[in-house]
Each structure stands twice: as structure tokens, then as C-alpha cells.
Design brief:
- This protein has 12 helices and 8 strands.
- The protein has 289 residues and is of the alpha/beta class.
- It is elongated and about 70 Å long.
- The structure holds NADP nicotinamide-adenine-dinucleotide phosphate.
- NADP nicotinamide-adenine-dinucleotide phosphate binds next to helix 1, helix 3 and strand 6.
């Protein structure tokens, strides 16, 4: 079995370490975190490995996962390259969505890769059960890509090939869908609050319709899923909503107009006529008074 060392076994590193150990794909060996207490806690969670107080005190391994925070990855790779002889046949990878494998280039001739699981590792205990079925965007040197394709398959994940030059655009795609969806829900809650509907009631009201909307999008796609006043070309309702939001909170009105313009573009790919689209664009482009 291949050995795996982890530098930065936090939420993601602990989850992957435990799953790979349980699947028998990697034998988890040395774990180094910022603090030794945290490394001990990671060893306990994974159920294997040994805590190391520094990179130089880690045992050498076939594979290295550098899963500290994004800003620390390059420095950790440099420390690794100055403490361990790099060799062909070994692999090193990180799991950042924002960075490509190039950030590890100091480790060549070790085969390097980036492998970004499209999953939210908020709670490792939950991720243990829910990671399977997720996709992992993978790019880098061929040996690392091949090994990681097998490694992720062993824990029920499918890999998606991506080029280093498209990594940032790829990551923006998941940021828009996931982080912006959260921000949209917050904007929606602010609008409900302005209407006197409290946070809990608003969340209960939103839950079924938001979940249904997400399901519709996943099965039908955005064009067929778009409903509401803009898709219907209901100029009067859009004008009234924009006006009400402007009186309640100009910032909310600003976001409503900006997102409304993107919504008009989407609706144009459906039933919305050119003429009504032009009127909606005019209405949403003007600051409301
Ligand atoms: N969380 C997610 O949902 C998610 C999803 C996809 C990809 N990722 C990627 O996965 C990576 C890790 O994210 P995470 O959320 O697991 O982070 P995290 O929970 O904050 O864990 C980071 C770990 O790195 C350790 N660390 C920080 N600086 C270090 C250093 N200089 N040397 C050694 N260890 C160091 C920390 O040690 P201490 O515990 O001692 O502070 C901690 O255990 C990032 O590249 C991130 O972009 C995360």
C-alpha cells in the first residue's frame, strides 16, 4: 500500500486521510499541522499515522498531501523540497480550487497535481458520510493524475480533468453557484425582514421553494427552470418591486436590479420577446426613485 503524509490535516485533510485509510488505498504515515495538539487530534480522527512537530521530522512517503490553507501551500512545498530529496515516482498534491499544481513546481521531479473536491468540508464527521459521489477537478503531471484518479475512485469520488490555465475559471463557476447562492439567500432574508417576516419564518417559507428550484435546475437546466415576473415579462410587477426595495433599502434595490439584468439575459433564451426584454433592461438599469 502507498504511504501518504499530510501537511495541514484540517477539515479536508482529516476527512480524506480517514477515508483513504479505511479504504486501504493509502497508509497514513506522518501528519504535521501548525500545532502539535492539532496534529495529534488529526491522528486520532483518522485512526492512523503519527503526529510530527515539523516537516523535517516527518518520515518520507510515496505521496504528500499539502492541505494547509491556500496561502501556506507554496511555503510548505518549499520547506518540503529543502528537507526531502525529490524523486520520480513520488507524488505531491494540494486540494485548493483557486491554485493550480504549478504552485508545487519546486517539488519536481516529484509528480505534482492539484485535486479540488467539489464538496463543503464544514464538518469532517459529516463529510465522511457525504463525500462519496462528489466530483474532484484534477490537473497536473500524469503519474500524480493517474494515482489520484484511482485514489478518489477508491472513496467513491469521480474525477474531472481540467487544465491549469482554466483552473481559475473552473473555480469561479463553483463559487458563483455555491457562495453566491448563499449570498442570494441572505439578500432574500433581508427583503423578508423589511416586510416584517422574521429570519426563522422566512427560512421555513424558503426551504421548499429553494430546494425545488435547485432540483429543477439540476434536471431541467436554468432556461426551463426560470419562472417569475422577468420570465413572464411582467413589467409592472418588476417596477413595483424595484420601487418598494428602493424605499426599504437602496442596497437591496441595487442587487435586485443587477441580478435582474442577468435574469433578463437568461429569459431571452426562453420565451421573453426582444421588445419586452428591452423595456425590462431600461427599467432595471435606471436607479429607482
Ligand atoms: N473546507 C472546504 O470545504 C474545502 C473544499 C475544497 C478544497 N479545500 C481546500 O483544502 C485545503 C484545506 O482547507 P481546510 O478547509 O481543510 O482548512 P482548515 O480546516 O483550516 O485546515 C488547515 C490545516 O492546515 C494546518 N496548517 C495551517 N498552516 C500550516 C502550516 N504552515 N504548516 C502546517 N500546517 C498548517 C492547520 O493546522 P492547525 O490546526 O494547527 O491550525 C489546519 O490543520 C485548502 O487548500 C482549501 O482551499 C477546502
Amino acid at each position: 500500500m502507498k504511504t501518504l503524509n499530510i501537511i495541514g490535516a484540517g477539515r479536508l485533510g482529516k476527512t480524506l486521510g480517514r477515508l483513504w485509510q479505511q479504504a486501504g488505498f493509502f497508509q497514513i504515515q506522518s501528519i504535521h499541522n501548525r500545532t502539535i495538539d492539532s496534529a495529534h487530534a488529526a491522528v486520532e480522527f483518522i485512526g492512523a499515522g503519527q503526529a510530527a512537530s515539523s516537516i523535517e521530522s516527518m518520515n518520507d512517503a510515496n505521496c504528500w498531501l499539502i492541505s494547509c490553507s491556500d496561502g501556506e501551500i507554496e511555503t510548505a512545498a518549499e520547506q518540503l523540497s529543502s528537507n526531502f530529496q525529490q524523486r520520480e515516482g513520488a507524488i505531491a498534491f494540494h486540494c485548493s480550487g483557486a491554485l493550480s499544481s504549478k504552485v508545487l513546481k519546486t517539488l519536481h521531479p516529484t509528480s505534482i497535481a492539484s485535486a479540488h473536491p467539489v464538496h463543503s468540508f464544514a464538518d469532517p464527521q459529516r463529510s465522511i458520510d457525504s463525500l462519496g459521489g462528489s466530483s474532484v477537478a484534477l490537473e497536473g503531471d500524469s503519474l500524480a493524475v493517474l494515482t489520484l484518479t484511482e485514489a478518489f475512485a477508491s472513496i467513491g469520488c469521480r474525477t474531472l480533468a481540467i487544465s491549469a490555465e482554466h483552473k481559475s475559471l473552473y473555480h469561479a463557476g463553483s463559487v458563483i453557484a455555491c457562495n453566491y447562492l448563499t449570498t442570494l439567500i441572505d439578500l432574500s432574508l433581508q427583503s423578508f425582514a423589511a416586510a416584517g417576516i422574521n429570519h426563522d419564518k422566512a427560512l421555513r417559507l424558503l426551504e421548499p421553494i429553494v430546494l425545488q428550484t435547485v432540483k429543477n435546475n439540476m434536471t431541467l437546466g436554468p432556461e426551463a427552470s426560470l419562472t417569475g415576473p422577468i420570465a413572464r415579462g411582467d413589467l409592472e410587477t418588476v417596477a413595483t418591486q424595484a420601487k418598494s426595495l428602493t424605499s426599504a433599502d437602496p442596497h437591496l434595490a441595487h442587487h435586485y436590479r443587477q441580478l435582474g439584468l442577468a435574469c433578463v439575459k437568461l429569459a431571452r433564451r426562453g420565451q421573453l420577446s426582444d421588445e419586452t426584454a428591452a423595456k425590462l433592461i431600461e427599467l432595471l438599469s435606471e436607479p429607482m426613485r
